[in-house]
Design a protein that fits this description.
Number of helices: 9
Largest sheet: 3 strands, antiparallel
Strand order of the largest sheet: 2-1-3
C-alpha cells in the first residue's frame, strides 16, 4: 500500500504491525467492517496522517463526515457587499504596503541605506526570510510531534524505541531509519512519512557536504 503525506484529512489503520486500511475516515471504517473480525478489531489502531494522533473510532458505527459551510456568498450577500464597497478611483493602484514606525540605532539605518534597494526593500527581505525560517521550524516541530505520537502508541515497547526518539529529535534521518528498520515494513514506512519534515534541514546539509566532497 502506497503511503503519501496529504494536506487533506486522511487516516491509516494498523492491526499489530500491518496497515489494513487507509483513506478518509469513511473509507477506513468501511474497509475495516468488511475485513476484520472481532479478534483483530481488538488490536486495531487508527492514526491521523497529519498529526500522528490516535483516532477513537468504532468501525461498527458509521463515522460522521465533517460538514463544511459553502464558501460561495449568496446573491443577496454579494449584492450588499458590492454596494458597501467604495467606488474605485482612477490613479496608481495600491500595492498593499502598510507604513509603520520602526525604531533602530543609527548604525542600523546606515547599514540598511547602504543595501541595494534601500532600507524598505532590505527590511521586507529580512522579514520574509525570518517568516520562512519560522514556518520551517514549525513544520519540523509538528513532524517530530506527529512521529512521536505514532511511535509511542504502536512501538513503545519495540527494540530501539528510545534510540529512535533520540535520533528523531536530533534530526539524524539515517540513524533514525536504522533504529526503526526492524519494526516491520508498514510501521517503519509510516513513521518515516510522519517524520519526513523533521529531517529537511539536515538532508540539505548532507547534500551540500556530498556536493563539496565531489568537488
Amino acid at each position: 500500500m502506497e503511503l503519501t503525506k496529504s494536506t487533506q484529512s486522511k487516516y491509516t489503520a494498523f492491526v499489530d504491525r500491518h496497515i489494513v486500511a487507509a483513506g478518509s475516515l469513511g473509507e477506513v471504517s468501511a474497509r475495516i467492517r468488511q475485513t476484520l473480525d472481532e479478534r483483530r478489531l481488538a488490536r486495531l489502531l487508527i492514526f491521523d496522517d497529519r498529526t500522528g494522533s490516535q483516532v477513537d473510532l468504532d468501525p461498527r458505527d458509521e463515522p460522521e463526515e465533517p460538514v463544511y459551510e459553502s464558501a460561495e456568498p449568496s446573491e443577496n450577500a454579494a449584492s450588499e457587499e458590492q454596494d458597501a464597497k467604495p467606488t474605485a478611483k482612477v490613479g496608481r493602484p495600491k500595492l498593499g504596503v502598510v507604513s509603520g514606525e520602526v525604531t533602530l540605532l543609527p548604525r542600523h539605518w546606515e547599514w540598511l541605506k547602504s543595501q541595494p534597494g534601500g532600507a524598505s526593500v532590505t527590511l521586507r527581505k529580512l522579514v520574509e526570510e525570518a517568516r520562512r525560517a519560522g514556518e520551517e521550524q514549525a513544520k519540523k516541530r509538528e513532524a517530530k510531534e506527529a512521529a512521536y505520537r505514532f511511535m509511542t502508541a504502536i512501538a513503545g515497547d519495540f527494540d530501539g524505541y528510545e534510540e529512535a526518539l533520540r535520533e528523531l529529535y536530533a534530526g539524524n534521518r539515517e540513524r533514525f531509519e536504522r533504529c526503526i528498520a526492524n519494526w516491520g515494513t508498514d510501521v517503519a514506512r509510516y513513521a518515516s512519512l510522519l517524520a519526513a519534515e523533521a529531517f529537511a534541514e539536515s538532508d540539505q546539509r548532507g547534500e551540500k557536504t556530498h556536493e563539496a566532497d565531489r568537488r
